[in-house]
Design goal:
single chain, 435 residues, seven-stranded parallel β-sheet, six-stranded antiparallel β-sheet, 18 strands, 26% helix, 19% strand, binds the ligand COc1ccc([C@@H]2N[C@@H](C)[C@@H](O)[C@H]2O)cc1
Length: 435
């Protein structure tokens, strides 16, 4: 292997209590909330199709113009306790909120910039209200932080000369100061979700990303940091030049999932983040412009992720006034209903079952109870659910709610399970006992 100064800081899955809790949580709420939530994808009467939090870029709005949105940010309908209550009812066990997106506006009163919540009509420490409410509700809090910063004068996309290098080193100090400030002001925070780390300037400075992970861990030894923060000595991201995962979990799955038969991903900790529309993270006024995922589509993405041993972060983009749009409220309600019935068995502590994937749905092993489950999304016309067990394993019992399902032994490893009498008209689960 190659000697690296800024490669993976350890090898293998962490087994400390905090990482085990992160893994067991499985289902998280992502919140994108910032100045971009005010225009909602529309500028000077033009609606932009792209992601609303990128409006400044798409509409080529000068910084001075965009930054003046700061004086309009006054979410008078924001109620952190209500947000946390909705999140809990939806089954979310953790939340990740944008403390600072690419625009550079900070949702907390930062000592290191005026471009923050303190200098808005809202004035109050919004992030503290948020952290306190979610913590009180028993939901773990994580912070999204964008390294890319369109506002900061020392940000550089590339390092072409000594002047760039000096400026970017000042930007690094600024970012590191803000991150340590976030840990110090909000000690409940469990970890950091870094974004905006694809530019050459960051890839040329593996040391910076290495130092940030170390600095955060010095304050909180079990802080959880995503792989997207990291670049190694040669600019390799997520995985170092020796193929070792950097950070504590792989965070490359953004708006897509691994293939159903991908066994490699099951060997590392990973988290997928997902939008409800095709591609909107911040609030966009017009969701009719793309497909909006149904509750069942989202449930299937969640279960597929857990079946491959991953966490799933579902995104919400609250409006500038602090309210959620109806589509998000409806999705929350549907997901919450399903989670209240099944999450304890097939989401929380859910993991890879190492059984041959089938078309009718997904397998989940519950690492707390040791039980194996099938989660059915697609009923076969044959009305029979196929199961193929590994050599040496035999099917013993199949439980569906309180009844035992019939099955017949088709060949050496194959079984066909008969559907229950009254098959539910929603994704349902059955328990598999093998010997
Ligand atoms: C250059 O393509 C992208 C795509 C998405 C992003 C950001 N990552 C997501 C988690 C959102 O924050 C989105 O703005 C940035 C650049």
């Amino acid at each position: 292997s190659i000697t690296l100064k800024y490669g993976a800081q350890y090898i293998g899955k962490r087994q400390d209590a905090e990482m085990k809790k992160f893994r067991a949580n499985r289902l998280g709420q992502f919140i994108h909330w910032g100045l971009y939530s005010i225009p909602g994808g529309e500028w000077n009467g033009t609606t932009y199709l792209g992601a609303a939090e990128w409006l400044a870029n798409f509409a080529k709005i000068p910084n001075a113009t965009w930054d003046s949105l700061q004086y309009q940010f006054n979410p008078n309908k924001f109620n952190a306790v209500q947000w946390a209550k909705m999140a809990k009812a939806s089954g979310f066990k953790y939340v990740t909120i944008t403390t600072k997106h690419h625009e550079g506006f900070c949702l907390w009163p930062s000592e290191f910039t005026e471009f923050d919540i303190e200098n808005t009509p809202y004035k109050k420490d919004l992030l503290k209200e948020f952290v306190d409410a979610y913590t009180e509700a028993g939901i773990d809090v994580y912070f999204y932080y964008s390294i890319l910063d369109w506002h900061h004068k020392d940000w550089r996309y590339d390092i072409k000369n000594q002047a760039d290098s000096l400026a970017f080193s000042k930007y690094f100090e600024f970012a590191k100061n803000q991150l340590l400030e976030l840990q110090q002001k909000y000690p409940e925070v469990k970890g950091f979700w870094f974004d905006g780390t694809w530019d050459a300037s960051w890839k040329k400075n593996g040391k910076y990303s290495y130092d940030i992970q170390k600095a955060l861990k010095e304050v909180n030894p079990n802080v959880i940091v995503n792989s997207r923060l990291r670049a190694d000595d040669f600019g390799s991201r997520h995985f170092d030049s020796n193929g070792n995962l950097m950070g504590d979990y792989q965070s490359g799955y953004e708006r897509y999932l691994p293939a159903k038969n991908d066994t490699l991903i099951t060997k590392i900790d990973w988290e997928a983040c997902m939008t409800i529309p095709v591609n909107q993270w911040g609030y966009h006024k017009d969701w009719s412009l793309s497909h909006v995922k149904s509750a069942n589509e989202i449930l299937e993405l969640i279960v597929k992720t857990v079946s491959l041993g991953g966490n799933f972060l579902l995104n919400y983009g609250p409006k500038g006034d602090g309210t959620f749009r109806n589509e998000e409220l409806e999705i929350s309600n549907s997901i919450g209903n399903w989670m209240s019935k099944y999450a304890d068995k097939v989401i929380y502590y859910g993991d890879y079952a190492n059984l041959k994937p089938q078309d009718w749905g997904y397998y989940v092993k519950n690492t707390n109870s040791g039980k194996f489950y099938g989660v059915v999304f697609n009923l076969p016309l044959s009305k029979l659910l196929k199961i193929e067990l590994p050599n040496g394993k035999k099917l013993k019992v199949v439980n569906f709610e309180t009844e035992k399902l019939e099955y017949h032994h088709h060949d050496k490893m194959g079984y066909f399970i008969s559907l229950p009498e009254n098959t539910p008209n929603e994704p349902f689960i059955f328990e598999i006992l093998m010997e």
